[in-house]
Design goal:
The complex is a heterodimer of chains A (about 400) and B (about 300). With about 400 residues, chain A is α/β, with parallel strands linked by helices. Chain A has 19 helices and 13 strands. The chains are: A alpha/beta (about 400), B mainly alpha (about 300).
Chain lengths: ~400, ~300
């Protein structure tokens, strides 16, 4: 009772409740980052019940979440992102976060493109946590120097450099042959080649005419042309093993999102000296983003609802944004954050995030579940990976892309 | 005891004795009805709807089946199952039988050998898959080993070759399950009446002839069991593929079980995944039902 009084008095006007949070941030740095949110919430008198489900980019967690939702007993919040937020909205189980959003002025501190993803029928139902940039190129400058190659900014330069590295007996491109990694590279090529408007039409709206267009055929050809610069052990390789090839100097470059930075940091490498982080050739004007977010379920009791609102509010507070994102290797989703505590690639990413948000080059990533429904994304994955690993022609691939996407919708 | 009870069974003790087996078994029967047959019915129902993220119970006809049969990846998975199933069962039975016959020669360290051959069965497919992924990886395993021995033009890259990847799953699967088939056959061989063999030998039949003409034909039921068990292992194969090739390169080594999981649980196409599960179920039934039928009829006749 005394404890409850203290808690009550320390946070005027709020009742203590419990939040149960489903997430899959279970690796070292991630778990530490989540603990920060837990501490902040407990300081306000609420309790945090961790519901961490390890494994596989959240597939397992989603299965668990689905069974809890079917049983009518969902957790308070769950790590769900992109268009899946809309699918959960369609099920009619999500809470309306409008009150927190208005009080905290979310519309002013989150870029509109991101806010759109978080809203269901114009109302906030999810809170964004961080931003990853997808179209990065990670370079080992020592390899380029040894091969006498220059670091590429355009596609033509990339091919030239790759040939030189190959001639010097090293692998030009460290590649991981898994469908999501192939799609990650492919979507960066699509935006580099076709621009943001074409990308939106093809990989966000899944417009059949754009999918089966000459630009798409060219994107497929360009994607396949990378294969000659990769080694033959690439199929099935995990992304971090590919990053390790760049770190060890066995390979010149890798195309991967900014989580690759964690591998360089863990290996004790310094940005700008041991490795360089640049936008993938032809994509410096674009920012393919991946935003992690939490959806909130409707709560039965008032204290539970207040605890949920407190959690939503705290996620976008500067303090959590900074600590979490430094640990995770991503950048804050909140605009106008001080940059000084972030490393050089993150600072560059933060600048580009703001700049592309203004110029229209900020677009959601298809490969990372931000742009289309999972069923459409799966259909694109199937065609891209089958094309890359077979003798299919680029024209056939574009045709099949349009038909399989139509069948999956 | 029980006879006595049944004869003099009056009152509570008697009826308890009569109904006890039913009472004891009823939870199991109930669980089986709900969790096996109930969920089969549920899956069949879901496959006829348009369920996506969560189940929806409004019927939509055979739409999902039509989509399934138009899906290229489904046909790749089905063809792979045909290749994998045939080769896996064939090689397991052949190698298992050969090993069993060799072990049946009353050799000295038979117990130890039997354990060694049977041991892979004790490993999970996850372990098998991981070990073979390393062995078959051209940059790590077999190919590199042989090249370092001096044969520099040696290539064995099935694992990363989309035309051959399904055969690497056959290799790992056969390695895993041959010992089990061997144990089945060995038990069958030991069950054969010695006097028949002795009679044949008295008649002057050579050992290979005795095996070929007498022993192997009389093991027909064992063959049946082995094939039935192997085919259901083949159809439900999931973990081996997930670990060994992840269905790749591309989706060239996908099997129906991995296909079903991918679509139902990672792509929010519950109804579509359910349709593929029902097709798999029918495939299993088409093997099991004739088998059970023939077995039961045989017993009635015998």
């Amino acid at each position: 009772m005394a404890l409850a009084m203290v808690v009550f008095m320390s946070v005027p006007g709020a009742m203590a409740g419990e939040v149960e949070v489903l997430h899959w941030w279970t690796s070292g740095g991630e778990a530490k980052s989540v603990a920060v949110l837990k501490d902040l919430l407990e300081k306000e008198g609420h309790t945090w019940k961790d519901f961490a489900v390890a494994g596989g980019g959240g597939d397992t967690a989603m299965t668990v979440l689905r069974s809890r939702a079917v049983a009518g007993n969902p957790p308070t919040a769950a790590q769900v992102k992109g268009p899946q937020i809309q699918q959960w909205g369609d099920e009619g189980v999500l809470a309306d976060l409008g009150r927190v959003a208005r009080a905290e002025k979310w519309d002013d501190i989150i870029p509109g493109v991101v806010a759109q993803v978080m809203k269901y029928k114009g109302q906030y139902v999810a809170v964004p946590v961080n931003v990853h940039r997808i179209n990065w190129m990670w370079v080992n400058p020592a390899v380029f120097k040894k091969a006498g190659a220059t670091i590429p900014k355009t596609w033509a330069e990339l091919e030239e450099a790759a040939k030189k590295i190959q001639a010097a007996g090293m692998v030009p491109i460290a590649f991981g042959g898994q469908d999501w990694q192939e799609a990650t590279v492919f979507e960066s090529i699509v935006i580099g080649l076709g621009g943001a408007d074409f990308y939106r039409k093809a990989l966000m709206k899944a417009d059949p005419a754009a999918l089966n267009s000459p630009t798409m055929v060219k994107a497929f050809e360009r994607f396949k042309s990378l294969k000659q610069y990769t080694d033959k052990n690439a199929p099935g390789r995990d992304w971090n093993l590919a990053t390790a090839m760049v770190i060890k100097g066995e390979a010149g470059m890798q195309f991967m999102g900014d989580w690759a930075k964690g591998e360089f940091t863990a290996a004790g490498k310094k940005p700008g000296v041991d490795y360089l982080a640049l936008p993938m050739p032809d994509t410096d004007k674009y920012f393919l983003f991946n935003v992690d977010s939490f959806i909130f379920f409707k709560q039965r009791s008032v204290p539970a609802g207040q605890a949920a609102e407190a959690m939503a509010r705290l996620i976008l507070q500067p303090k959590f944004q900074e600590v979490f994102n430094i640990n995770k290797g991503s950048i804050p989703v909140r605009l106008g954050m001080p940059k000084k505590n972030f490393d050089a690639p993150a600072q560059m990413s933060m600048d580009d995030f703001v700049a592309t948000a203004a110029s229209g080059g900020l677009v959601p990533s298809m490969a990372h579940e931000m742009a289309v429904y999972p069923e459409v994304r799966g259909a694109i994955f199937d065609v891209v990976t089958n094309f890359y690993n077979s003798d299919m022609s680029a024209a056939d691939a574009a045709k099949r892309l349009a038909s399989e996407v139509a069948a999956a919708k | 005891m029980s006879n006595e009870g049944r004869q003099t069974g009056r009152g509570f003790a008697g009826s308890l004795q009569r109904y006890l087996p039913g009472i004891v078994l009823s939870p199991t029967i109930l669980a089986a009805v709900v969790f096996i047959y109930g969920f089969i019915m549920w899956t069949a129902w879901i496959s006829l709807t348009e369920s996506g993220l969560l189940p929806r119970y409004k019927l939509a006809g055979f739409l999902q089946y039509v989509k399934l049969f138009q899906n290229d990846r489904w046909w790749v998975a089905s063809r792979n199952l045909a290749i994998f199933g045939t080769l896996f069962i064939f090689f397991c039975v052949v190698f298992g039988l050969i090993l069993a016959i060799l072990l049946d020669q009353r050799i000295r360290v038979e117990g130890a050998l039997r354990t060694i051959y049977l041991y892979p069965m004790a490993l999970s497919f996850i372990v098998t898959g991981t070990a073979w992924r390393w062995m078959l990886n051209p940059g790590l395993g077999l190919e590199r080993l042989v090249r370092e021995m001096g044969f520099t033009s040696f290539t064995f890259d099935w694992l990363v070759n989309s035309k051959m990847s399904i055969y690497t799953i056959v290799i790992a699967g056969v390695w895993q399950s041959t010992g089990f088939v061997m144990a089945l056959f060995l038990a069958g061989l030991r069950g054969i009446d010695d006097s028949i063999i002795k009679a044949a030998q008295v008649d002057g039949a050579s050992l290979p002839k005795v095996y070929w003409r007498i022993i192997i034909p009389s093991m027909r039921p064992v063959f049946f069991s082995a094939v039935i068990i192997m085919s259901h292992i083949a159809i439900k194969s999931f973990d081996l593929v997930m670990v060994l090739t992840r269905g790749g390169p591309g989706y060239s080594s996908d099997l129906p079980a991995t296909f079903m999981y991918t679509f139902a649980f990672t792509r929010n196409r519950l109804a579509f995944g359910a349709a593929s599960a029902i097709i798999m179920f029918m495939a299993v039934m088409s093997i099991i039902v004739p088998y059970l039928y023939s077995e039961l009829r045989m017993k009635r006749n015998g």
